[in-house]
Records
---
Amino acid sequence: MKEFVTISVDLTKLEIIREYYSSSLVTATGEYVDFQAKVNDVTITAYLSKKETKKITFVGEGALNEARIWDIDAKPYEEEQLEKAKPAWMYFDDQIGSDEVGVGDFLGPMIVVATFVDKKGIARLKELGIQDSKKMTDKKLLEVGAILVKEFKFSKLTLSNEKYNEMLDKGENLNSMKAKMHNRALLNMHKEYQDVLNIFVDQFVKEETYYKYLNDAKEEQVKGILFKTKGESWFPCVALASVIARYSYLKEMEKLSEKYKMEFPFGASKRVTDFAVEFVKRYGEKELYKVAKKNFANYSEVIGYKLV
Protein backbone atom coordinates (compact mmCIF):
# COMPACT_ATOMS: atom_id res chain seq x y z
CA MET A 1 0.00 0.00 0.00
CA LYS A 2 1.29 3.49 -0.87
CA GLU A 3 2.37 5.74 1.97
CA PHE A 4 0.52 9.04 2.27
CA VAL A 5 1.99 11.87 4.35
CA THR A 6 0.92 15.49 4.72
CA ILE A 7 2.95 18.32 6.28
CA SER A 8 2.28 22.04 6.83
CA VAL A 9 4.92 24.68 6.11
CA ASP A 10 5.11 28.46 5.99
CA LEU A 11 5.69 30.41 2.78
CA THR A 12 9.45 30.76 3.34
CA LYS A 13 9.91 27.02 3.77
CA LEU A 14 7.67 26.37 0.78
CA GLU A 15 10.04 28.37 -1.43
CA ILE A 16 13.01 26.40 -0.10
CA ILE A 17 11.23 23.11 -0.86
CA ARG A 18 10.26 24.26 -4.35
CA GLU A 19 13.89 25.15 -5.07
CA TYR A 20 15.10 21.82 -3.66
CA TYR A 21 12.86 19.90 -6.08
CA SER A 22 13.39 22.27 -9.04
CA SER A 23 15.16 19.61 -11.11
CA SER A 24 12.40 17.09 -10.41
CA LEU A 25 9.36 19.23 -11.23
CA VAL A 26 6.62 17.70 -13.39
CA THR A 27 3.54 19.17 -15.03
CA ALA A 28 1.13 19.90 -12.20
CA THR A 29 -2.30 18.29 -12.27
CA GLY A 30 -5.17 19.82 -10.37
CA GLU A 31 -6.68 23.29 -10.18
CA TYR A 32 -5.25 24.19 -6.77
CA VAL A 33 -1.73 22.80 -7.15
CA ASP A 34 1.22 25.17 -6.65
CA PHE A 35 3.83 22.73 -7.90
CA GLN A 36 4.39 19.00 -8.27
CA ALA A 37 7.61 16.97 -8.30
CA LYS A 38 8.55 13.32 -8.72
CA VAL A 39 11.45 11.75 -6.80
CA ASN A 40 11.90 8.00 -7.37
CA ASP A 41 8.48 6.55 -6.47
CA VAL A 42 7.33 9.56 -4.44
CA THR A 43 5.06 12.29 -5.81
CA ILE A 44 5.34 15.61 -3.97
CA THR A 45 2.45 18.05 -4.35
CA ALA A 46 2.25 21.57 -2.88
CA TYR A 47 -1.19 23.20 -2.75
CA LEU A 48 -2.23 26.80 -3.27
CA SER A 49 -3.82 28.44 -0.24
CA LYS A 50 -4.63 31.90 1.11
CA LYS A 51 -3.65 30.71 4.58
CA GLU A 52 -0.23 31.41 6.08
CA THR A 53 0.51 27.68 6.25
CA LYS A 54 0.66 25.60 3.08
CA LYS A 55 -0.03 21.87 2.70
CA ILE A 56 2.38 19.52 0.97
CA THR A 57 1.59 15.85 0.35
CA PHE A 58 4.05 13.01 -0.23
CA VAL A 59 2.59 9.89 -1.85
CA GLY A 60 4.32 6.63 -2.75
CA GLU A 61 6.86 4.14 -1.46
CA GLY A 62 9.35 6.08 0.65
CA ALA A 63 6.97 9.04 1.19
CA LEU A 64 7.53 9.14 4.95
CA ASN A 65 11.32 9.36 4.63
CA GLU A 66 10.98 12.10 2.01
CA ALA A 67 8.53 14.10 4.17
CA ARG A 68 10.81 13.84 7.19
CA ILE A 69 13.49 15.77 5.32
CA TRP A 70 11.24 18.78 5.98
CA ASP A 71 9.35 17.72 9.12
CA ILE A 72 11.04 15.23 11.43
CA ASP A 73 7.72 14.62 13.22
CA ALA A 74 5.80 13.79 10.05
CA LYS A 75 3.53 10.72 10.32
CA PRO A 76 1.70 8.48 7.85
CA TYR A 77 -1.87 9.62 7.25
CA GLU A 78 -3.50 6.69 9.09
CA GLU A 79 -1.34 7.14 12.20
CA GLU A 80 -1.92 10.89 12.22
CA GLN A 81 -5.70 10.51 11.95
CA LEU A 82 -5.86 7.88 14.68
CA GLU A 83 -3.89 10.12 17.04
CA LYS A 84 -6.27 13.01 16.41
CA ALA A 85 -9.31 10.81 17.03
CA LYS A 86 -7.94 8.98 20.05
CA PRO A 87 -10.05 9.80 23.12
CA ALA A 88 -8.29 10.53 26.41
CA TRP A 89 -10.15 7.73 28.17
CA MET A 90 -9.18 6.95 31.74
CA TYR A 91 -10.83 3.57 32.40
CA PHE A 92 -10.44 0.35 30.42
CA ASP A 93 -12.09 -2.54 32.28
CA ASP A 94 -15.58 -3.96 31.58
CA GLN A 95 -18.10 -1.15 32.02
CA ILE A 96 -21.65 0.12 31.51
CA GLY A 97 -22.45 3.76 30.82
CA SER A 98 -25.17 6.06 29.53
CA ASP A 99 -25.71 9.37 27.77
CA GLU A 100 -28.61 11.26 26.22
CA VAL A 101 -29.39 13.47 23.26
CA GLY A 102 -32.19 15.77 22.13
CA VAL A 103 -32.52 17.83 25.32
CA GLY A 104 -31.37 21.04 23.61
CA ASP A 105 -33.49 20.57 20.50
CA PHE A 106 -36.95 22.08 20.23
CA LEU A 107 -37.97 19.44 17.71
CA GLY A 108 -37.36 15.70 17.80
CA PRO A 109 -37.43 13.20 20.67
CA MET A 110 -35.22 12.78 23.71
CA ILE A 111 -33.14 9.61 23.55
CA VAL A 112 -31.13 7.89 26.30
CA VAL A 113 -28.72 5.07 25.51
CA ALA A 114 -26.83 2.76 27.86
CA THR A 115 -24.03 0.52 26.55
CA PHE A 116 -21.76 -2.29 27.67
CA VAL A 117 -18.09 -2.28 26.64
CA ASP A 118 -15.28 -4.74 27.42
CA LYS A 119 -11.57 -4.52 26.63
CA LYS A 120 -12.02 -6.00 23.18
CA GLY A 121 -14.77 -3.49 22.50
CA ILE A 122 -12.58 -0.58 23.60
CA ALA A 123 -9.97 -1.60 21.05
CA ARG A 124 -12.68 -1.62 18.39
CA LEU A 125 -13.88 1.86 19.41
CA LYS A 126 -10.35 3.20 19.06
CA GLU A 127 -10.09 1.56 15.66
CA LEU A 128 -13.27 3.36 14.55
CA GLY A 129 -12.12 6.69 16.00
CA ILE A 130 -15.04 6.98 18.41
CA GLN A 131 -15.22 10.10 20.55
CA ASP A 132 -17.84 12.53 21.81
CA SER A 133 -20.64 12.62 19.22
CA LYS A 134 -20.71 16.44 19.37
CA LYS A 135 -17.25 16.46 17.78
CA MET A 136 -18.27 14.21 14.89
CA THR A 137 -19.99 15.25 11.67
CA ASP A 138 -23.48 13.93 10.96
CA LYS A 139 -22.07 12.08 7.96
CA LYS A 140 -19.50 10.32 10.16
CA LEU A 141 -22.12 9.55 12.84
CA LEU A 142 -24.44 7.91 10.33
CA GLU A 143 -21.58 5.90 8.87
CA VAL A 144 -20.11 4.70 12.17
CA GLY A 145 -23.43 4.45 14.02
CA ALA A 146 -24.69 1.85 11.56
CA ILE A 147 -21.67 -0.29 12.48
CA LEU A 148 -21.88 0.24 16.25
CA VAL A 149 -25.53 -0.78 16.62
CA LYS A 150 -24.67 -4.13 15.04
CA GLU A 151 -21.48 -4.80 17.00
CA PHE A 152 -22.25 -3.56 20.54
CA LYS A 153 -24.86 -4.32 23.19
CA PHE A 154 -26.99 -1.34 24.16
CA SER A 155 -30.36 -0.29 25.55
CA LYS A 156 -32.11 2.66 23.90
CA LEU A 157 -35.10 4.57 25.23
CA THR A 158 -36.88 7.09 23.01
CA LEU A 159 -39.29 9.65 24.49
CA SER A 160 -41.50 11.25 21.85
CA ASN A 161 -42.32 14.92 22.33
CA GLU A 162 -46.00 14.07 22.68
CA LYS A 163 -45.17 11.88 25.69
CA TYR A 164 -42.60 14.45 26.88
CA ASN A 165 -45.30 17.15 26.94
CA GLU A 166 -47.76 14.87 28.72
CA MET A 167 -45.18 14.27 31.45
CA LEU A 168 -44.57 18.02 31.76
CA ASP A 169 -48.32 18.46 32.25
CA LYS A 170 -48.14 15.92 35.10
CA GLY A 171 -45.45 17.94 36.91
CA GLU A 172 -42.27 16.25 35.66
CA ASN A 173 -39.30 18.38 34.64
CA LEU A 174 -36.54 17.75 32.11
CA ASN A 175 -34.03 16.35 34.60
CA SER A 176 -36.52 14.07 36.32
CA MET A 177 -37.41 12.56 32.94
CA LYS A 178 -33.74 12.15 32.09
CA ALA A 179 -32.99 10.48 35.43
CA LYS A 180 -35.81 7.95 35.00
CA MET A 181 -34.71 7.15 31.46
CA HIS A 182 -31.05 6.76 32.44
CA ASN A 183 -31.99 4.46 35.31
CA ARG A 184 -34.18 2.25 33.10
CA ALA A 185 -31.57 2.01 30.31
CA LEU A 186 -28.78 1.21 32.80
CA LEU A 187 -31.01 -1.34 34.54
CA ASN A 188 -31.65 -3.11 31.24
CA MET A 189 -27.91 -3.44 30.64
CA HIS A 190 -27.02 -4.34 34.21
CA LYS A 191 -29.53 -7.20 34.26
CA GLU A 192 -27.73 -8.62 31.24
CA TYR A 193 -24.23 -8.01 32.70
CA GLN A 194 -24.78 -8.49 36.43
CA ASP A 195 -21.09 -8.92 37.26
CA VAL A 196 -20.15 -5.47 35.94
CA LEU A 197 -19.63 -3.09 38.84
CA ASN A 198 -18.25 -0.15 36.87
CA ILE A 199 -21.22 2.02 35.89
CA PHE A 200 -20.81 5.56 34.58
CA VAL A 201 -23.20 8.39 33.70
CA ASP A 202 -22.50 11.66 31.92
CA GLN A 203 -23.50 13.88 34.85
CA PHE A 204 -26.38 16.33 34.37
CA VAL A 205 -27.42 16.80 38.04
CA LYS A 206 -25.85 16.09 41.43
CA GLU A 207 -25.96 12.46 42.56
CA GLU A 208 -28.40 13.09 45.43
CA THR A 209 -30.76 14.98 43.11
CA TYR A 210 -30.58 12.19 40.54
CA TYR A 211 -31.77 9.62 43.07
CA LYS A 212 -34.50 11.93 44.41
CA TYR A 213 -36.00 11.93 40.95
CA LEU A 214 -36.26 8.12 41.04
CA ASN A 215 -39.40 8.26 43.18
CA ASP A 216 -41.23 5.22 41.80
CA ALA A 217 -41.13 2.58 44.57
CA LYS A 218 -41.87 -0.14 42.00
CA GLU A 219 -38.84 0.75 39.85
CA GLU A 220 -35.55 -0.89 40.79
CA GLN A 221 -32.63 1.53 41.05
CA VAL A 222 -29.12 1.06 39.70
CA LYS A 223 -26.69 1.93 42.51
CA GLY A 224 -22.94 2.49 42.62
CA ILE A 225 -22.91 4.90 39.67
CA LEU A 226 -19.96 7.22 39.12
CA PHE A 227 -21.26 10.54 37.77
CA LYS A 228 -18.79 12.57 35.70
CA THR A 229 -19.28 15.68 33.58
CA LYS A 230 -17.98 15.22 30.03
CA GLY A 231 -18.14 11.50 30.75
CA GLU A 232 -17.54 10.65 27.10
CA SER A 233 -13.97 11.95 27.51
CA TRP A 234 -13.35 9.67 30.49
CA PHE A 235 -15.15 6.42 29.74
CA PRO A 236 -15.46 4.45 26.48
CA CYS A 237 -18.95 3.20 27.39
CA VAL A 238 -20.25 6.78 27.70
CA ALA A 239 -18.54 7.78 24.44
CA LEU A 240 -20.22 4.82 22.74
CA ALA A 241 -23.60 5.71 24.28
CA SER A 242 -23.16 9.30 23.09
CA VAL A 243 -22.54 8.22 19.50
CA ILE A 244 -25.36 5.65 19.34
CA ALA A 245 -27.78 8.16 20.89
CA ARG A 246 -26.87 10.83 18.35
CA TYR A 247 -27.03 8.33 15.48
CA SER A 248 -30.50 7.27 16.64
CA TYR A 249 -31.59 10.89 16.93
CA LEU A 250 -30.49 11.63 13.36
CA LYS A 251 -32.52 8.65 12.14
CA GLU A 252 -35.57 9.84 14.08
CA MET A 253 -35.29 13.31 12.54
CA GLU A 254 -35.06 11.70 9.10
CA LYS A 255 -38.34 9.88 9.83
CA LEU A 256 -40.06 13.11 10.89
CA SER A 257 -38.81 14.93 7.80
CA GLU A 258 -40.11 12.13 5.60
CA LYS A 259 -43.47 11.89 7.38
CA TYR A 260 -44.25 15.61 7.20
CA LYS A 261 -42.44 16.35 3.92
CA MET A 262 -40.44 19.11 5.64
CA GLU A 263 -36.74 19.17 6.55
CA PHE A 264 -36.71 19.26 10.37
CA PRO A 265 -33.94 21.57 11.72
CA PHE A 266 -31.87 21.04 14.86
CA GLY A 267 -31.42 23.25 17.92
CA ALA A 268 -33.68 26.06 19.12
CA SER A 269 -32.71 29.09 17.04
CA LYS A 270 -34.97 31.60 15.29
CA ARG A 271 -34.65 29.46 12.17
CA VAL A 272 -36.24 26.60 14.13
CA THR A 273 -39.05 28.89 15.30
CA ASP A 274 -39.67 30.00 11.71
CA PHE A 275 -39.84 26.35 10.67
CA ALA A 276 -42.37 25.63 13.43
CA VAL A 277 -44.54 28.56 12.32
CA GLU A 278 -44.65 27.11 8.82
CA PHE A 279 -45.31 23.64 10.29
CA VAL A 280 -48.37 24.95 12.19
CA LYS A 281 -49.67 26.62 9.04
CA ARG A 282 -49.59 23.24 7.31
CA TYR A 283 -50.54 20.83 10.10
CA GLY A 284 -51.98 22.81 13.02
CA GLU A 285 -51.12 23.33 16.70
CA LYS A 286 -52.23 19.86 17.79
CA GLU A 287 -49.67 18.28 15.49
CA LEU A 288 -46.93 20.64 16.77
CA TYR A 289 -47.65 19.31 20.28
CA LYS A 290 -46.55 15.88 19.02
CA VAL A 291 -43.20 16.98 17.56
CA ALA A 292 -42.05 19.95 19.69
CA LYS A 293 -41.15 20.49 23.37
CA LYS A 294 -43.70 22.86 24.90
CA ASN A 295 -41.38 24.13 27.68
CA PHE A 296 -39.08 25.79 25.11
CA ALA A 297 -39.48 29.53 24.45
CA ASN A 298 -39.91 28.63 20.77
CA TYR A 299 -43.26 27.01 21.57
CA SER A 300 -44.89 30.10 23.07
CA GLU A 301 -43.46 32.20 20.21
CA VAL A 302 -45.05 29.92 17.66
CA ILE A 303 -48.41 29.61 19.40
CA GLY A 304 -48.48 33.39 19.92
CA TYR A 305 -47.67 34.01 16.26
CA LYS A 306 -50.53 35.43 14.21
CA LEU A 307 -50.99 32.90 11.46
CA VAL A 308 -52.11 34.27 8.11
---
Amino acid sequence: MRKKFKVSYELVMVLILVAMCLLFGVLTDGLFLKPKTMIGCTSDVAYLGVQAMSMTLIILTAGIDLSVSYQMVCSAMVCATVYNMSGSALVAIIACIASGFVFGAMNGIIAAKTPINPWLITMSTMYIFQAISWFFGSSYAFSAGNPIVDVLNMKIGGVVPTQLIVLLVVYAVFWVLEKKTTFGRYTHAIGHNENAVNFSGINANRMKFWIYTLGGLTSAIAALMYMGRSWQVNQETGFNMNIEVIALVVLGGTSTAGGVGGVTGSLIACLIIGVLKKGLALMGLPGTVYNFIVGLVLIGSLIFFAYLQKRKKMVSRKMAIENMDEQKVA
Protein backbone atom coordinates (compact mmCIF):
# COMPACT_ATOMS: atom_id res chain seq x y z
CA MET A 1 0.00 0.00 0.00
CA ARG A 2 1.43 3.35 -1.08
CA LYS A 3 1.93 5.97 1.60
CA LYS A 4 -0.08 9.15 1.20
CA PHE A 5 2.13 12.15 0.44
CA LYS A 6 1.76 14.80 3.15
CA VAL A 7 2.36 18.44 2.32
CA SER A 8 4.15 20.10 5.24
CA TYR A 9 3.71 23.74 6.20
CA GLU A 10 7.43 24.32 5.54
CA LEU A 11 7.06 23.01 1.97
CA VAL A 12 4.17 25.39 1.34
CA MET A 13 6.34 28.23 2.67
CA VAL A 14 9.19 27.30 0.33
CA LEU A 15 6.80 27.28 -2.65
CA ILE A 16 5.52 30.73 -1.62
CA LEU A 17 9.14 31.94 -1.40
CA VAL A 18 9.92 30.66 -4.90
CA ALA A 19 6.71 32.17 -6.29
CA MET A 20 7.52 35.56 -4.74
CA CYS A 21 11.02 35.52 -6.22
CA LEU A 22 9.62 34.79 -9.68
CA LEU A 23 6.91 37.45 -9.29
CA PHE A 24 9.37 40.16 -8.28
CA GLY A 25 11.69 38.99 -11.05
CA VAL A 26 8.94 39.71 -13.58
CA LEU A 27 7.89 43.00 -11.96
CA THR A 28 11.49 44.31 -11.89
CA ASP A 29 12.41 43.13 -15.42
CA GLY A 30 14.72 40.41 -14.09
CA LEU A 31 16.68 42.71 -11.78
CA PHE A 32 15.54 40.86 -8.66
CA LEU A 33 16.64 37.47 -10.04
CA LYS A 34 20.30 38.46 -10.19
CA PRO A 35 22.20 36.22 -7.67
CA LYS A 36 23.80 39.20 -5.92
CA THR A 37 20.38 40.82 -5.38
CA MET A 38 18.67 37.64 -4.17
CA ILE A 39 21.41 36.72 -1.71
CA GLY A 40 21.89 40.33 -0.64
CA CYS A 41 18.25 40.76 0.38
CA THR A 42 18.95 38.62 3.47
CA SER A 43 21.07 41.45 4.93
CA ASP A 44 17.92 43.52 5.46
CA VAL A 45 16.29 40.94 7.73
CA ALA A 46 19.05 38.70 9.11
CA TYR A 47 19.05 40.48 12.47
CA LEU A 48 15.26 39.96 12.67
CA GLY A 49 15.74 36.28 11.86
CA VAL A 50 18.24 35.85 14.68
CA GLN A 51 15.74 37.33 17.14
CA ALA A 52 13.00 35.13 15.66
CA MET A 53 14.93 31.99 16.61
CA SER A 54 14.56 32.66 20.34
CA MET A 55 11.10 34.18 19.89
CA THR A 56 10.02 30.85 18.37
CA LEU A 57 10.93 29.03 21.59
CA ILE A 58 9.17 31.70 23.66
CA ILE A 59 5.95 31.44 21.63
CA LEU A 60 6.17 27.63 21.69
CA THR A 61 5.68 27.92 25.48
CA ALA A 62 2.53 30.02 24.80
CA GLY A 63 4.50 33.11 25.84
CA ILE A 64 5.52 36.31 24.07
CA ASP A 65 8.29 38.91 24.30
CA LEU A 66 7.29 42.41 23.26
CA SER A 67 10.56 43.90 24.53
CA VAL A 68 13.05 42.31 22.10
CA SER A 69 13.34 45.42 19.93
CA TYR A 70 14.40 47.70 22.77
CA GLN A 71 16.58 44.99 24.31
CA MET A 72 18.43 45.12 21.00
CA VAL A 73 18.63 48.94 21.06
CA CYS A 74 19.94 48.99 24.65
CA SER A 75 22.55 46.31 23.92
CA ALA A 76 23.67 48.25 20.83
CA MET A 77 24.03 51.43 22.88
CA VAL A 78 25.99 49.59 25.59
CA CYS A 79 28.29 48.25 22.86
CA ALA A 80 28.76 51.70 21.30
CA THR A 81 29.34 53.41 24.66
CA VAL A 82 31.92 50.84 25.80
CA TYR A 83 33.69 50.99 22.43
CA ASN A 84 33.92 54.79 22.58
CA MET A 85 35.28 54.61 26.13
CA SER A 86 37.72 51.71 25.70
CA GLY A 87 38.54 51.72 22.01
CA SER A 88 38.42 47.90 22.09
CA ALA A 89 35.94 46.10 19.84
CA LEU A 90 36.37 42.85 21.82
CA VAL A 91 35.50 44.52 25.15
CA ALA A 92 32.52 46.24 23.48
CA ILE A 93 31.21 42.95 22.08
CA ILE A 94 31.56 41.22 25.46
CA ALA A 95 29.70 44.11 27.12
CA CYS A 96 26.98 43.89 24.47
CA ILE A 97 26.44 40.13 24.98
CA ALA A 98 26.54 40.51 28.77
CA SER A 99 23.92 43.27 28.67
CA GLY A 100 21.69 41.10 26.47
CA PHE A 101 21.97 38.29 29.02
CA VAL A 102 20.96 40.66 31.84
CA PHE A 103 18.02 42.13 29.90
CA GLY A 104 16.72 38.70 28.91
CA ALA A 105 17.18 37.40 32.46
CA MET A 106 15.01 40.26 33.77
CA ASN A 107 12.09 38.96 31.71
CA GLY A 108 12.96 35.38 32.58
CA ILE A 109 12.96 35.93 36.33
CA ILE A 110 9.58 37.69 36.30
CA ALA A 111 8.05 35.09 33.95
CA ALA A 112 9.37 32.23 36.10
CA LYS A 113 8.57 33.64 39.53
CA THR A 114 5.18 35.25 38.97
CA PRO A 115 1.84 34.20 37.39
CA ILE A 116 1.67 37.46 35.41
CA ASN A 117 0.78 37.08 31.72
CA PRO A 118 3.91 37.35 29.49
CA TRP A 119 2.16 40.06 27.43
CA LEU A 120 1.99 42.30 30.50
CA ILE A 121 5.50 41.43 31.71
CA THR A 122 7.25 42.14 28.44
CA MET A 123 5.11 45.17 27.60
CA SER A 124 6.23 46.67 30.91
CA THR A 125 9.90 45.82 30.40
CA MET A 126 9.64 47.14 26.84
CA TYR A 127 8.93 50.60 28.26
CA ILE A 128 11.76 50.16 30.79
CA PHE A 129 14.27 49.28 28.06
CA GLN A 130 12.96 52.12 25.90
CA ALA A 131 13.52 54.53 28.80
CA ILE A 132 17.04 53.14 29.32
CA SER A 133 17.81 53.83 25.65
CA TRP A 134 16.75 57.46 26.18
CA PHE A 135 19.02 57.73 29.23
CA PHE A 136 21.97 57.24 26.89
CA GLY A 137 20.65 60.41 25.25
CA SER A 138 22.57 60.16 22.00
CA SER A 139 22.72 58.69 18.53
CA TYR A 140 25.77 56.55 17.79
CA ALA A 141 27.19 56.44 14.28
CA PHE A 142 30.13 54.39 13.00
CA SER A 143 32.28 54.60 9.94
CA ALA A 144 34.43 52.26 7.87
CA GLY A 145 37.43 51.12 9.87
CA ASN A 146 35.37 50.13 12.89
CA PRO A 147 35.96 46.35 13.32
CA ILE A 148 32.29 45.63 14.11
CA VAL A 149 31.12 47.43 10.98
CA ASP A 150 33.85 45.99 8.76
CA VAL A 151 33.23 42.36 9.76
CA LEU A 152 29.42 42.45 9.83
CA ASN A 153 29.17 44.50 6.62
CA MET A 154 31.56 42.23 4.76
CA LYS A 155 30.62 39.97 1.84
CA ILE A 156 32.43 36.67 1.50
CA GLY A 157 33.60 36.23 -2.08
CA GLY A 158 32.01 39.58 -2.79
CA VAL A 159 28.55 37.95 -2.82
CA VAL A 160 27.56 36.17 0.43
CA PRO A 161 26.88 38.63 3.29
CA THR A 162 28.38 37.90 6.70
CA GLN A 163 24.91 38.65 8.07
CA LEU A 164 23.52 35.58 6.28
CA ILE A 165 26.30 33.38 7.68
CA VAL A 166 25.53 34.55 11.23
CA LEU A 167 21.81 33.88 10.70
CA LEU A 168 22.45 30.34 9.44
CA VAL A 169 24.83 29.56 12.32
CA VAL A 170 22.30 30.80 14.91
CA TYR A 171 19.56 28.81 13.14
CA ALA A 172 21.68 25.65 13.25
CA VAL A 173 22.26 26.07 17.00
CA PHE A 174 18.55 26.58 17.70
CA TRP A 175 17.54 23.73 15.36
CA VAL A 176 19.73 21.34 17.34
CA LEU A 177 18.42 22.78 20.60
CA GLU A 178 14.79 22.38 19.52
CA LYS A 179 14.92 19.08 17.64
CA LYS A 180 17.73 17.08 19.24
CA THR A 181 17.63 17.90 22.96
CA THR A 182 15.26 17.25 25.85
CA PHE A 183 15.21 21.03 26.36
CA GLY A 184 13.52 21.43 22.98
CA ARG A 185 11.05 18.61 23.57
CA TYR A 186 9.98 20.05 26.91
CA THR A 187 9.71 23.52 25.36
CA HIS A 188 7.02 22.13 23.05
CA ALA A 189 5.47 20.27 25.97
CA ILE A 190 5.15 23.44 28.08
CA GLY A 191 3.06 24.98 25.31
CA HIS A 192 0.79 21.93 25.24
CA ASN A 193 0.42 21.42 29.00
CA GLU A 194 2.71 23.13 31.50
CA ASN A 195 1.22 21.28 34.48
CA ALA A 196 2.02 17.93 32.87
CA VAL A 197 5.66 19.03 32.45
CA ASN A 198 5.87 19.94 36.15
CA PHE A 199 4.29 16.64 37.17
CA SER A 200 6.89 14.77 35.08
CA GLY A 201 9.63 16.17 37.33
CA ILE A 202 10.81 19.02 35.06
CA ASN A 203 10.88 22.55 36.44
CA ALA A 204 8.94 24.47 33.75
CA ASN A 205 9.64 27.82 35.41
CA ARG A 206 13.40 27.26 35.26
CA MET A 207 13.09 26.39 31.57
CA LYS A 208 11.09 29.55 30.92
CA PHE A 209 13.81 31.58 32.63
CA TRP A 210 16.44 30.25 30.22
CA ILE A 211 14.17 30.60 27.19
CA TYR A 212 13.57 34.31 27.89
CA THR A 213 17.26 34.77 28.67
CA LEU A 214 18.08 33.31 25.25
CA GLY A 215 15.82 36.04 23.88
CA GLY A 216 18.12 38.63 25.44
CA LEU A 217 21.24 36.94 24.06
CA THR A 218 19.89 36.81 20.51
CA SER A 219 18.82 40.46 20.83
CA ALA A 220 22.44 41.31 21.68
CA ILE A 221 23.69 39.38 18.64
CA ALA A 222 21.07 41.19 16.55
CA ALA A 223 22.37 44.50 17.96
CA LEU A 224 25.85 43.78 16.61
CA MET A 225 24.37 42.73 13.26
CA TYR A 226 22.22 45.86 13.06
CA MET A 227 25.21 48.14 13.68
CA GLY A 228 27.15 46.30 10.99
CA ARG A 229 24.26 46.77 8.56
CA SER A 230 23.12 50.32 9.37
CA TRP A 231 26.31 51.80 10.87
CA GLN A 232 24.27 53.64 13.50
CA VAL A 233 21.74 53.23 16.30
CA ASN A 234 19.48 55.71 18.09
CA GLN A 235 16.42 55.81 20.35
CA GLU A 236 14.01 55.32 17.44
CA THR A 237 15.73 52.22 16.05
CA GLY A 238 13.51 49.66 17.80
CA PHE A 239 10.19 51.16 16.68
CA ASN A 240 7.83 48.34 15.50
CA MET A 241 10.74 45.87 15.29
CA ASN A 242 9.13 43.57 17.87
CA ILE A 243 6.03 43.28 15.67
CA GLU A 244 8.21 42.26 12.71
CA VAL A 245 9.91 39.54 14.78
CA ILE A 246 6.59 38.17 16.04
CA ALA A 247 5.17 38.29 12.49
CA LEU A 248 8.12 36.19 11.27
CA VAL A 249 7.49 33.53 13.89
CA VAL A 250 3.72 33.39 13.35
CA LEU A 251 4.12 33.37 9.55
CA GLY A 252 6.62 30.54 10.03
CA GLY A 253 3.89 28.32 11.46
CA THR A 254 4.36 28.70 15.21
CA SER A 255 0.99 28.93 16.95
CA THR A 256 0.52 31.65 19.58
CA ALA A 257 -1.43 29.02 21.56
CA GLY A 258 1.91 27.22 22.09
CA GLY A 259 3.30 23.78 21.36
CA VAL A 260 3.12 23.90 17.55
CA GLY A 261 5.80 25.18 15.18
CA GLY A 262 9.58 25.36 14.97
CA VAL A 263 12.63 27.39 14.00
CA THR A 264 12.75 26.05 10.43
CA GLY A 265 9.47 27.76 9.60
CA SER A 266 10.75 30.97 11.19
CA LEU A 267 13.89 30.87 9.00
CA ILE A 268 11.85 30.42 5.81
CA ALA A 269 9.51 33.22 6.90
CA CYS A 270 12.56 35.44 7.43
CA LEU A 271 13.65 34.79 3.83
CA ILE A 272 10.12 35.56 2.59
CA ILE A 273 10.08 38.88 4.43
CA GLY A 274 13.57 39.66 3.07
CA VAL A 275 12.35 39.02 -0.48
CA LEU A 276 9.27 41.17 0.17
CA LYS A 277 11.36 44.09 1.49
CA LYS A 278 13.86 44.02 -1.36
CA GLY A 279 11.22 43.47 -4.04
CA LEU A 280 9.08 46.41 -2.88
CA ALA A 281 12.19 48.61 -2.63
CA LEU A 282 13.24 47.75 -6.19
CA MET A 283 9.73 48.63 -7.36
CA GLY A 284 10.08 52.03 -5.67
CA LEU A 285 7.19 51.49 -3.23
CA PRO A 286 7.31 53.20 0.20
CA GLY A 287 7.86 51.44 3.53
CA THR A 288 4.20 51.98 4.46
CA VAL A 289 3.24 49.36 1.85
CA TYR A 290 5.58 46.88 3.53
CA ASN A 291 4.09 47.66 6.96
CA PHE A 292 0.58 47.20 5.56
CA ILE A 293 1.44 43.80 4.08
CA VAL A 294 3.18 42.63 7.29
CA GLY A 295 0.07 43.64 9.25
CA LEU A 296 -2.16 41.68 6.88
CA VAL A 297 0.14 38.64 7.10
CA LEU A 298 0.15 38.78 10.91
CA ILE A 299 -3.64 39.04 11.33
CA GLY A 300 -4.21 36.45 8.58
CA SER A 301 -1.87 33.98 10.28
CA LEU A 302 -3.53 34.53 13.67
CA ILE A 303 -6.99 33.90 12.17
CA PHE A 304 -5.68 30.77 10.42
CA PHE A 305 -4.22 29.33 13.63
CA ALA A 306 -7.36 30.21 15.57
CA TYR A 307 -9.34 28.24 12.98
CA LEU A 308 -6.97 25.27 13.26
CA GLN A 309 -7.21 25.37 17.06
CA LYS A 310 -11.01 25.39 16.91
CA ARG A 311 -11.02 22.53 14.41
CA LYS A 312 -8.63 20.53 16.58
CA LYS A 313 -10.95 20.92 19.58
CA MET A 314 -13.97 19.85 17.50
CA VAL A 315 -12.15 16.74 16.28
CA SER A 316 -11.04 15.88 19.84
CA ARG A 317 -14.62 16.33 21.08
CA LYS A 318 -15.99 14.14 18.29
CA MET A 319 -13.46 11.39 19.07
CA ALA A 320 -14.31 11.57 22.78
CA ILE A 321 -18.04 11.22 22.03
CA GLU A 322 -17.36 8.25 19.71
CA ASN A 323 -15.28 6.55 22.43
CA MET A 324 -18.08 7.05 24.96
CA ASP A 325 -20.61 5.55 22.54
CA GLU A 326 -18.36 2.53 21.95
CA GLN A 327 -18.01 2.00 25.70
CA LYS A 328 -21.82 2.12 26.15
CA VAL A 329 -22.30 -0.50 23.38
CA ALA A 330 -19.67 -2.73 24.98
